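Worked example 2:
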Amino acid sequence: MDILIELPIDADGFLRRQCQSCRGEFKWHYGPTPTRPDTVVDPAMYTCPLCGTPAPHDQWSTEDQSRYQQQIVEFYAVDAINDELKRAFGRNYKPGKNTAPAPTPLHEPNDMLIVESPCHPWEPVKIPQQRADSGPLYCLVCGETYEA
């Protein structure tokens, strides 16, 4: 059974992310921007724009996103287990009912300030407003520092 878990993006097309090192939340643009050159190849790792720590693409989920993904898997696991038991035992198996409510989908507010690094402006990020005035930021793609 394949389960598609969709995470919400905000009105500007940004997906909330969380650095596992500094625990800070920011957003990166979901999908290519219109200004992205056709020849660009995605890096193997992204860099936290808040602290400069690099990590693989799959290491940026927020705590809420991870919890929601776990709830979705647990909710649909009951159906998958019942399907397997029915296949194993045939008509004699009477599946139990999945009484758990479906997880409430996440909502993504259109918050934070959009910033572009000078070296990779086609990969904008959103950062908390208070972070814009408190030190350097790091390019999501290459890790170079810049000011907001």
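The mean pLDDT is 91. The beta strands are 14-18, 25-29, 45-47, 54-56, 113-115, 125-127, 137-138, 145-146.
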